[in-house]
Amino acid sequence: MQVKSKSILKYSLITLVIIILLLIASIVALVTLVNPNHFKPLIIKAVKENTGRQLSLPGNISWKIFPNIGLHVGQASLSNPDGFSQPDFMKLDAADISLQLLPLFHSSIVVDSLTINGLNLGLIQKGDQNNWTFNLPQKSTGAATSPQKSTYLALSSLILTNTTITYVDLNSNKHSELKNFDFNLNTERGGNISVDTGSENLTLNKTNFNFDNLVSGKINFVVQGFNKPQYTGDINLPEFALNQLLDKLDIAKEDRINKPLLNKFAISSTFKGDMEGLDVSKLDFNFGDNIAANTTVKVQNFDNPQYTGTINLPTFSLNKLLDGLNIAKTSRVNNTVFNNVAVQSKFSGTKDDINFSQTHFNFPNIVDGDLNLQVQNFDNPEYAGDINLPTFSLNKLLDGLNIAKASRVNKPLLNNFALQSKFSGTKDNISFNQTHFNFPNIVQGNLNLQVQNFDKPQYIGNINLPTFSLNNLLAQSGITSPKLPNKALLNKVAFQSKLAGGTNNINLSQIDLKLSNSTITGNLNVNSIKPIKFNENLNLDQAELSDFINTKGFKLPIKQAKFNGNLSLNGLEDKNYPSSLNAQQSISVGNLKLLGFSINNFIHQLDNTLTSTSNTLGGGILNNIIKGNAADAFNSLYNSGQILQSINNMKNIVAKAKAPGPKDLSQQTDLGTLQADVTLHNGIAQPTNFKLSGPSLKSNGQGSVNLNKETLNYSITTQLVAPQQNKIINQIIFPYLIQGKIADMNGSLDWGSIQKQLVNYYLANAGDQVNKAANQVIDQVKQKATENLQQGVQQGTDNLIKNIFGH
User: For the chain, N or C: smaller number of CB within 10 Å?
Assistant: First the structure.
C-alpha cells in the first residue's frame, strides 16, 4: 500500500512538471509566433465601433512576460469628435497591459492591470457640446444590422504616471490644468474594477487609490447607465495635508499662506447621484485635533444648483480653528470664549444665496442660542434673520472676550441677560427689529434700531422700557442712587422715546418718562457726548418737589412745568466737573402750591393785629406831639407793645410753620405761577429773572448758586395780595434770605425791615390824628384872654411845627 502511494505521488509530480513545461512552452510559442501588432486594425476598428472616435497606434505593441504576461503599447491617441479644432481627446506615451493567464487558454483576453505613462487628457466644453460624451455612429437603415458587441474590462489595478488633465470652457473662456501627477487605483482581496459597456456599468469595489502620494484612501463606486448615469458610492480619506493637495491643484495659493489648519484633514462620505444632482447622506470631516463635523447635503440641477443639507459641529476650539486660519490672532489674546463652541444647523441655497435655519450654537457654560439667517446675492450681499439668546451671564461672556473687566467689577446687572431680535442688512447697514431684551427681575425693554454706514455710523430707532425700579437697576449696576428724600420715587419708572444719532451724538424725541405719578415729555438733543453738550425742551405734567428736595415737612406739588435751554459740560468723570458747567435755562411752572401753611390764615391774623394796633397807637402818638416830644413819639411808636406784638405774632406764625414735625397738609397756599431764567457759568448759577405770581402773594428773587462749593446765597422779596384787608398788608415787603450748603440750607425773614415798615405805616396813618389835635389846640387858645390870644396862638403854632419837624 505504501509502494502504491509513492507511485501516485511520483506520477502527480511528473504531471505537474509537464503542465508547467507546456505552459511555458505555450507562452514562449505565443510570444514567439504571434505578433500583437497584427491586431492593430482590429483594435482600431473595435474602438471606432464602440466610441465613434479614431484611435491611432503609431507606437509598437510588444509582449511582456514579467512580472505578468501582457502587452506593452507604445504611443497612442484618441481623436476628438467633429466640430472641435483640437485634434486629440487623449494621448499617451506608453501603456502596459497585464493579462490573466488562464482565460488565454479559452481564447479570452481578461486584463488584470493597466499602467499608462504620459497620459494627456483634454476636456473641452463648447456651446452645449463637450468632447467627453461618446456618440456611437449610426448604422445605415438599408444594411444588415448585427447586435452591438459589448466590451467587458476587469482590472485589479490602474496606474497612471506623468499624467496631465486640462479643462477648457470656451463659453466662459476658463482654463484649468492639472499637470504631471501620478494616480494608482487597486483592489483589495475580493474587490474589482470593471467596465461593462453592454450593461453600461462601471464598478469600483473595495478599491484603494493614491493621488501623487498626496492623498490616499478607499472608495466604492458604481455607475449604472453611461448616457444618463446614476451613481452610488462611499469614500474614505484618512488624514492628509490638504494644503499640499491644494497647492498641486493650484487652488487659492496666496489665500492659504500661513494657514496651518489645512495641514491635517480627513474626510469620509456616502453619496449617490446622477448628472443632475448629488445626494451626500453622510459626510464626516475633521481638521486634525481642531474641529470635527458631520453633514449631509443634497444638490439638484448642476447648471443652476439648488442645495439643502444639515451640519453638526460638536464642541471644538474656535480659537484653534481661527489660529489655524491665521485670523485675528492679536485681537483674540486672552479670549477664552472661543475655546469651546458647538453648532448645529440646517441650510439651503443656490449659487447666489444661502439660508441657515434652526441653527443652534453653544458656548458651554457661557451662552447658547438659536439663529435663522438668510443671505442673498453674494456679490452684493443682503441678509435677514432672527436670533434668540435665552438667559445667560453677559458678565461671563464679556470676561471671556476680555472686554472692560475692570469697569464691570461689582456689576451684577450683567449676570443675567436675555435677547430676542429680528435683523436685516447689507455690508453697509443693519437693522434690528422687534428686539426684546431682558435683565430678569431688573428691567426689560423693546428696541428698534437702524444703523447705516459702518465707517461713520448713523442710527435711528425707538426704545420702550416698561415699568421698572431704577433704584434696583442702579444698585445692580454698581451705581449709588441719587440722594432724594423720597427714594421710593425711583421704584416705579417707565421710559419710551424715539432716538437718532451718531458716534458722538444722540437725539431723543417724543420722550415719555414716568416717575411714579409724574410724566416728562419732550425732546432732548445731545449734540456732543464727549464733552457733553445738549439742549432740551421738556414738559413735566406734575410732580411733588418734596420728593426731590428737603422741604422740612411741607408739600410742594407743581403742575405744567416747562424746561427749555442748553447745557455744556466737560465730563462727569472729572470730580471737579461743576466748574465746567455752563447753561442757559428757562423754567416755568403753571401752578405751584404749598401744603402745610395757609397764607390766608396768616393774612387774617395779621389784619386783626394791625387794625387793633392802629386804633390804640394814635392817642400815645398825639400826646407826645402835643407835649412837643416828636422823637419820643417815634421811639414810642417803634418800641410800642402793639408793634412788637404784631411782630411777635408774625414770628410765632412763621416759627410754628417752620417747627419740625408733621404739618397740617389741609392748610394750603396757592403760590401761582413761576417763571425763572437761569444762567450758569463755570458752575455758578445766577437766575436773571425769578417771578412767582399767585392769588395771595407775589415774589421776586435774586442771588446765586455755587455748584462748585455746593452753596447758595439767595434773597426773595414777597408781597401779600389781600385787597379786602388792612391796606398795610398789601404794602409790607417780606424779605427772605436763603444761605448755606445746598444740602442743609437755612432761610430767615428780615424782621427788622418788617418792623420799620410797620412804623412808617403808623406814622403815615397818624397824620389825620395830628391835624385834629392841632385844631383842638387852636380852639383852646381862642378861649384864653384876649390879651394873650395872639401870643398863645403864636406859641402853640410854633410848638406844633417844631415838634412835627423835629426842631
Answer: N
Q: Taking the CA atoms of the chain, what radius of gyration do you get in angstroms?
A: 55
pLDDT of 30 above 70: no
What is the Cα–Cα distance from 437 to 122, expressed in whole angstroms?
61
**What does the pLDDT look like over 626-654, one tens digit per residue?**
444 444 544 554 455 566 776 777 777 77
**Cβ(437)–Cβ(416) below 8 Å:** no
Q: Which of the pair, 293 or 2, is modelled with greater confidence?
A: 293
Q: How confident is the model at residue 386 (pLDDT cuts 50, 70, 90)?
A: very high
Helix 767-782 / helix 751-765 crossing angle, nearest 10 deg: 40
Measured distance CA(115)–CA(598) in Å, rounded: 117
Which residue, chain included where needed, has cell 464598478?
A: 203
Q: 167 to each of 117, 157, 601, 708, how far by Cα in Å?
A: 20, 26, 108, 82
Q: How many CA atoms lie within 13 A of 357 on its CB side?
A: 7
Phi, psi (5° rounding) for residue 596? 115, -5
Q: Which of 215, 217, 176, 208 is nearest to 189 (CA)?
A: 208
Looking at residue 630, its pLDDT comes to 45
What is the chain's length?
Answer: 807
Q: Which long-range contacts (CB under 8 A, 24 or more apart) does 77-81 make?
A: 78/47, 78/51, 78/53, 78/54, 79/53, 79/54, 79/55, 80/53, 80/122, 80/124, 80/131, 81/52, 81/53, 81/129, 81/131, 81/135
pLDDT in tens, 282-308: 999 999 888 999 999 999 998 899 999
- C-alpha 669/C-alpha 660 separation (Å) is 19
Amino acid at 424: S
- Mean pLDDT over residues 414-441, rounded? 96
Integer Cα distance of 717 and 804 in angstroms: 33
- The partner residues of 747 in beta bridges, in order of sequence, read 738
Is residue 48 within 8 A of residue 55, CB to CB? The reply is yes
In terms of DSSP H, where are the helices of 527-629? 599-626
**Nearest to 594, CA basis, from 639, 550, 546, 548:** 546
Contact 164, 179 (CB under 8 A): yes
| pTM for the structure as a whole | 0.74
Tell me the three cell numbers of residue 724: 379786602
Half-sphere exposure at residue 656, Cβ-oriented, CA atoms within 13 angstroms: 13
Residue 231 carries which side chain, given as an amino acid letter? Y
The model's pLDDT over 452-471, given as tens digits with 9 standing for 90+, comes to 999 999 999 999 999 999 99
